[in-house]
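This section describes the prediction task in plain terms. A model, or a person checking by hand, is given the sequence of a single protein chain and must write out its three-dimensional structure as a string of tokens. No templates, partner chains or ligands are provided. The sample shown here is typical of the held-out split.
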Amino acid sequence: MQASEFPRAVAAAMSIASSLGLTVDDALVLHDSNKLTLRLLPCDVLARVAPVAHQVAQFEVELAQRLVESGCPVAALEPRVEPRVHERDGFVVTLWTYYEPVTPHEVSPADYAHALERLHAGMRRLDVPTPHFTDRVEQAQQLVANRDRTPALAEADRELLGDTLRSLRRVIGERGGAEQLLHGEPHPGNLLTTENGLLFIDLETCCRGPVEFDLAHAPEEVSEHCPGVDQDLLRECRILVLAIITTWRWDRDDQLPNGRRLGAEWLGQIRAALGHNGLDVRG
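The expected answer:
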């Protein structure tokens, strides 16, 4: 979130929570990206704040409710207030259960895979309109093609990303495999280790596509505990996902710490992965 918006965003979250009868004296910043994540104290509520123009909060709230009701491993909304989207001073605010982290430990690949499998099973039972995973690929393609938005991207790297996105989007689409509702970005940063077990957060990225697209965001060892996975498709999805997140790092407005350094490293990983898998994305 832009630094100039920070104080107003925090004030909006605190004001809304107070108006709902929650005791709020302080707000601790837990995460700052496209939206601000706060821990409101002493009521101990998690608030997610985003500019009105850049959010899909209503979709996320409704989907979270349905997934929790079906027993899926996702973070729940705050039970002390009505589950809805609040708007104030140009921001939308949603209130969620705050989960105290358990003693840090590495999540086992088997546990990770089991949690993702449970999530996918619950999602298969839902019929909700969502974007297709190729919409995200198209957004990355548009960014690569926009030199004003990606001025620091060298032409050879621009060609590599453009060719990789275009080619793998086509190859994966031509496979014609089964598709379903997906989390969209179930990477370790969107997985909480809590006393309630592993819980996924950040449902705004949900989309439709093959489960291999979700698995491509998880550590490689996780797929070893997922029977029935198309390994060729998974390898293609891993490179495609890497190309997408690499593209975001070259956006002139990207705010990820060390984002440009990561973008350079990932370009090298894309070249290595294409060579290792014998994929020619040119033309």
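For orientation: The first strand starts at residue 24 and ends at 32.
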